Amino acid sequence: MKRNNFLEENGVDQLADVHEPNSREAAGAAMTANVSLGQAPAGAFPRTKPVEVRHIRLQPTQGWAAINLYELWEFRDLLLILAGRDVRLRFKQTALGVIWVILQPLLASGIFAVIFGYLAKLPSDGKPYLLFVYSAMLPWNFFAASLQRAGNSLIGESRLISKVYFPRMIMPISSSAAVLVDFAVSLTVMVVLMLAYRVQPTWNLLALAALIPVMLLTTTGVSLFLSALNVYYRDFMYALPFILQVWMYGSPLVYSVTIIPEEWRLLYALNPMVGVIEGFRWAVLGGQAVPIVPMGMAGVLGCWFFFAGAMVFRRVERYFADVI
Amino acid sequence: MSDIAVRVEGLSKAYRIRASRGQYGYRTLQEEVLSLLRSPFRLRNSRNDQETIWALDDIYCEIRRGELLGIVGRNGAGKTTFLKILCRITEPTAGHADIFGRVGSLLEVGTGFHPELTGRENVFLNGAILGMRRSEIRCKFDEIVSFAEIEKFIDTPVKRYSTGMHMRLAFSVAAHLEPEILLVDEVLAVGDLAFQKKCLGKMDEVARGGRTIFFVSHNLGAVTRLCGSAILLDQGKLVMSGPASDVVKHYEAKHLAACAEWKRPAGWNSQGFEFVRICVEDSEGRPCFLFRGDEPIFVRIDYSVRRPLPGCQVAMFLATSGGLHVLSSADSDAENVSSLQRNPGNFSTQLSIPAHFLAAGLYVASFTAHLPLQTTYDDVPEQVRFEVSRAGSLESLDSRKPIVAPLIEWQTEKSS
């Protein structure tokens, strides 16, 4: 009995002919020849360039898994496209659009300047308080916004996670990457503020080249950790605003490190954001003492945070599709 | 190097259903901490409160390059789990699979489409999700758009697309992916017939290009036509493998016939109304799955009413396997519903769908006993299936593809 549910027109009837056993075997034989060269078969679809036939073994993983940087690199286009999508979507249906990127940190700094600088008169090492806060706000805003976006990135795309394979790390990392655009805009605004306050740029600014990677490592590590655990325990998203608040007051954002007693400074610098923020402030506004100790500690801790976050992520990501 | 594309050895996947899971399906920290406090000395991974379900159980198979493998089986047989493991969405619990080549999957068309983005942006996004490089997508962009037939709307946000356009674009992106191994799960149930045909054609083209395809479908006709070989899964176990036509025949005979009949599982409670048994029968009263186009189809519904249910009607909804609603009918259609009394007792109803009415295809029947728009007393959704073949149908005479195929009387007189 022939069953033709809907393939009744000529086109598909011809299609059936192709499936005569002979032609299939012929195709198979042609294939084998190609395969022995270790290349993808060039058939009806000519490839742009021959690709090595890759072998993967799928099996249960036990314990810790290595961080597969090569695979992340292979999916770099996805990372860029996802980040681009995030940026584009963020300002859809807003009246001011990109101006918000400039306004948000400026307004926040303004509020801090009034409350902590003007009313509470917190010391700002003799610098204009607005600039003092804004320079610290640069790395901090990136950190806080990344955590918020990356934390929800995986559960926000649960359909994708359960239907398509891609390195799961792409998701939180691309969320952070999208925030990097805001960071770049804020950095430009910083230059404008420096001009407005007539602050002479110094060679200190070169330190940013080292500080930005440290900021990225720290942020990515914490984001990976949070986003992974958030798949299992959604409590983290509720706790995050408070974690961020405590973390913010635990970092020299609105106050200067000088108010921390000398003997506690080392302990204080175990928070990698302390080194990053102090470094940013020093790079932008200058100062007598180079905060070399907190910066160095931030560098080491940043690498450690990244590594630990990524390892935890790799450890739990294998069950994402089953749990999400 | 052999010409094997995929070798699967002892592949198994267990899902643990936790008895102590929270109401949202995942545990909150609170629950985790509480359970630790309650029994601090119990091993953390103790599985006393967990029930294990083997979605895949010890599967062995080997697929050669350029082969089209059909995977058939009932819902819940493990077909999707099998594909999910092969495309690395989830890990197996035991066993392993060796994959030679890049894997592309089409588990659900259009996942990753973002409604706010335009068609163009979504092509790049979706392509990248499926593992294409940006340069690769740029190269094939025009081809993708023209295959989907949406050139005019490519810069319109996808949220303004019709379902059909959405599907066409999504399939088109996936079809232009060039993996050595392509996993396809029931994507042909969507879109119009012309596009379905185009998709099947494209799949065949891909296979001829030397790629290996895993094809999961309830459309047995398509499996037989397209696939050289097939495997049959049932409750996670591989029941049979071999030439597609043999496997499909076996599946129909042994498994699908069971679909023609539904019996109430023990322990199912209802609110005063219970469907007891529903069966699709031939003219001699035997359960039957496959009907010729020129045979009437009988549906027998046995039910019992436990308490008076005034106004309750018993209805049948018939849909194609693609989800197209074909007809609905209720036993009260001819009466005034408000005057309908339904008194306790056991009843048996037979209804018949006339010969020469349904077009060839697979049909899914759902049954419900309800007070229309108010209360549902009992329902049996999508449990009963049957198929109408082309044999004896008008369609077999030429290449029509209608939704209904009634025998309509034509009266022609010579007028002058």
Identify the CATH homologous superfamily of the largest domain in chain B: P-loop containing nucleotide triphosphate hydrolases
Secondary structure tally: strands of chain A:
1
* Series of H and E elements of chain B: EHEEHEEHHHEHEHEEHEEEEEEEEE
Briefly note the CATH topology name of the largest domain in chain B. Answer: Rossmann fold
The assigned structural class of chain A equals: mainly alpha
Main beta-sheet annotation of chain A? none
- Beta-strand residue fraction of chain A: under 5%
Count of helix runs of chain B: 8
Number of helices of chain A: 14
Description:
The complex is a heterodimer of chains A (324) and B (416). Chain A contains 14 helices and one strand; from the N terminus they run ααβαααααααααααα. Chain A has 324 residues and is mainly α. Chain A has one domain. Chain B is α/β, with parallel strands linked by helices and 416 residues long. Chain B starts with a strand and ends in a 28-residue tail after the last strand. Classes of the chains: A mainly alpha (324), B alpha/beta (416). At the A-B interface, helix 1, helix 2, strand 1, helix 4 and helix 7 of A face helix 1, helix 2, strand 4, helix 3 and helix 4 of B.
